[in-house]
Amino acid sequence: MDVEERFNRIARNTVEIVTVDELRRLLESGGGIKGYIGYEPSGVAHIGWLVWMYKVKDLVEAGVDFSVLEATWHAYINDKLGGDMELIRTAARIVRRVMEAAGVPAERVRFVDAEELASDKDYWGLVIRVAKRASLARVRRALTIMGRRAEEAEVDASKLIYPLMQVSDIFYMDLDIALGGMDQRKAHMLARDVAEKLGRKKPVAIHTPIISSLQGPGRMEASPGEIDDVLAEVKMSKSKPETAVFVVDSDEDIRRKIRKAYCPARQVQGNPVLEIARYVLFARDGFILRVERPSRYGGPVEYVSYEELERDYAEGRLHPLDLKNAVAESLVEIVRPIREAVLSDSTMRRALEVIEGRVTR
Ligand SMILES: Nc1ncnc2c1ncn2[C@@H]1O[C@H](COP(=O)(O)OP(=O)(O)OP(=O)(O)O)[C@@H](O)[C@H]1O
Ligand SMILES: N[C@@H](Cc1ccc(O)cc1)C(=O)O
How many degrees, rounded to 5, is the angle at CA 292 between CA 290 and CA 298? Predict the structure, then answer.
């Protein structure tokens, strides 16, 4: 791939790149580029995670030396899985399997355990230096990166360490690119500002879209705030199982959940079914959405691009039920091999049962 092809591969299906020029310069420099994403191993992945997993695949294919940080300590701080570190580590093994089944070339990705970072005194030196350069108000505001509101830091002070650790992870691993969903924006912006003050490499932030809750965004006007704060509230989230399709859901569960999903006729904004079509289904090369419907409703139709689908939907030429059925069937095809990869392994199956019973938020 030449520079342009690499750039396009990295940029497709993203919401923002901070900054595009810096990314171009990195690619043009011809040197090695180090990127990462971190996630909390804290339960079963939902289809929102496929959005970043597909992006990891793009980055690896574009030649980025990529690490996936299994943020075990972060999950502990964030009260996941009852703070059971053994279970948190097990959850990380399951997510690895999910990533492989979703097409991420695992042999070309470095998996890093947050406990390994935290075992180095230099890591903690870095956390303290980062803390010195960040105001308390800014760190509190960054709590959205862990799906919390600023006020929640009052309950338990470890929550304030989390954003500082996330920023330090980036410096410790000496990264050029930090990837995350839009809800991770505050960590990346903080890292960019602190980088200048500490004379560190300023990471390019790449943000992928957030899929809304299946129940819809609710009263969006009632949640004023910056875009990432709002998205953190309305996203499909594993802590709210009724909002999500999980990668281990049965075919019938997927169909049932999509059938019940919020999907007003002609509405594009905040429509989770269209978002799934756009960011999960059409994110795959060569995808075609096939709508089966009786001839009295227009007969079968095929969409080869999201844009065509959106146009027909917005103009009322595609009924919500027909959209839902088509999206559900395609999702079933995507989820099935992932579910089988996880559930065909009896150790994983058992671990999953324990984890599902222990999801604490
Ligand atoms: N609904 C979503 N759509 C797209 N990406 C998502 C979605 N939810 C989470 N992500 C991304 O997945 C990564 C892991 O996020 P996170 O651990 O917060 O997910 P989650 O399962 O919703 O967790 P929780 O419910 O525990 O907050 C982050 O980069 C985040 O941006
Ligand atoms: N805050 C991220 C997890 C994360 C943790 C540490 C990092 O360095 C990066 C990401 C999330 O909630 O998904």
Answer: 110
Ligand 2 centroid to 2 CA: how many Å?
A: 31
Residue with tokens 């996630």: 39
Q: ipTM score of the complex?
A: 0.96
- CB-ligand 1 contact for 194 (6 Å cutoff): no
Q: Please tell me the total number of residues recorded for the chain in this structure.
A: 361
**Which residue's alpha carbon is nearest to atom 13 within ligand 2?**
39
Tokens of 80: 């996941």
Residues in Cβ contact with 326 at an 8 Å cutoff, skipping those fewer than 6 apart:
289, 290, 291, 292
Domain 3-208 in CATH 3.40.50.620? The answer is yes
Q: Separation of 165 CA from ligand 2 center, angstroms?
A: 9
Q: Of the bound ligands, which one is closest to the alpha carbon of residue 178? A: 2
Pick the CATH number of 237-358 from 3.40.50.2300, 1.10.240.10, 2.40.40.20, 2.70.70.10: 1.10.240.10
Per-residue pLDDT of the chain (361 residues), as tens digits, is 999 999 999 999 999 999 999 999 999 999 999 999 999 998 889 999 999 999 999 999 999 999 999 999 999 999 999 999 999 999 999 999 999 999 999 999 999 999 999 999 999 999 999 999 999 999 999 999 998 888 877 778 999 999 999 999 999 999 999 999 999 999 999 999 999 999 999 999 999 999 999 999 875 555 566 888 888 788 999 888 889 999 999 999 999 999 999 999 999 999 999 999 999 999 999 999 999 999 998 999 999 999 999 999 999 999 999 999 999 999 999 999 999 999 999 999 999 999 988 766 6
The phi, psi pair for 18, rounded to 5°, reads -115, 100
The residues spanned by each domain of the chain are 3-208, 237-358
CA-nearest residue for atom 21, ligand 1, is 238
Whole-angstrom distance, CA of residue 99 vs CA of residue 111: 11
Of all protein residues, whose CA lies closest to atom 12 belonging to ligand 1? 49
By the 8 A CB rule, do 272 and 74 touch?
A: no
Q: At what angle do helices 158-172 and 185-198 cross, to 10 degrees?
A: 60
CA of 146 to the centre of ligand 2 (A): 7
